[in-house]
Amino acid sequence: MANSQAPLYQQVAIDLTRRIQAGEWAPGNALPAEEVLAAHYAVSRITVRKAIGVLIAAESVQKRRGSSATVASAARLAPAATVIAPPTGFIQERFAAEKQTRFTLNPAYADARLAQRLQVPVGTALLCLTRHVFDADGMVALFQTYFTAQALSVGRLRQSLNGGHSFYAFLRAEAIIPHVQREEVTALDADAGLRAIFGFKNARPLLRRQRVVASASGDYREYSDCYYAADRYRFILDFASDGHEAEPF
């Protein structure tokens, strides 16, 4: 199975993901019963249940009460989603001129969800860059960017961000050219956790943007999960076909 230092349920989850991606079970087909998977991996049914929960969270499988987990369609999207995949276009953003950004940079590791998106083994060392963006009326955006960082200097990255430079300007200075693999924008309402982060007292609309990025060499990989206050943030989708890369954040 996957990285032996990861919890058992994550090892099972990443191996099930590998088998799904290899086509062992086609979209719409049911996974084997919990007791069958438990016997195959020599783990408890509780461990298998937790592993399937990880796959559900990663949208690799679907499960309804009283039924078996089934493999999700690779093309399945959340409702009200717009997908932009190069070279057909990219997204650009327009912040208000008075924006301010607060960031934190912390170590992280790839769980099954991140491992699937970044195409790395479970347990791979990552960095997580979290950015809160404000304007004069309050918080307008939250960015969480997970990326492989073996070739990057954390000290230089902190210095660049403290100097007000964008994350992607730093990557260019490090001779890393990111290429967007996939972008997805979904409309949703803020749940209680997101309302607390944004300081919303009542239900408010959000835009969620997910993107997967990699360098041409594959040495750099990135997954970003971003939320925007849809009724206040200056958000523009620019569709282009000239092949240039967007510089979104």
3D structure, described in words:
This protein is α+β, with helices and mostly antiparallel strands. It folds into two domains: 8-71, Winged helix-like DNA-binding domain superfamily/Winged helix DNA-binding domain (Arc Repressor Mutant, subunit A, Orthogonal Bundle); 81-236, Chorismate lyase. 26% of the residues lie in helices and 30% in strands. It has seven helices and eleven strands. It has helices at residues 8-21, 34-41, 45-57, 112-118, 154-162, 167-173, 192-198; strands spanning 61-62, 70-71, 81-84, 92-93, 100-109, 125-135, 138-147, 178-189, 205-215, 221-229, 235-236. The chain has a seven-stranded antiparallel β-sheet with strand order 3-8-9-10-7-6-5. Helix 1 crosses helix 3. It is globular and about 55 Å long. Keywords: DNA-binding, Transcription, Transcription regulation. InterPro entries: Bact_HTH_transcr_reg, Chorismate_lyase_/UTRA_dom_sf, Tscrpt_reg_HTH_GntR, UTRA, WH-like_DNA-bd_sf, WH_DNA-bd_sf. This is GntR family transcriptional regulator. Pfam families: GntR, UTRA. Residues 6-74 form the HTH gntR-type domain.
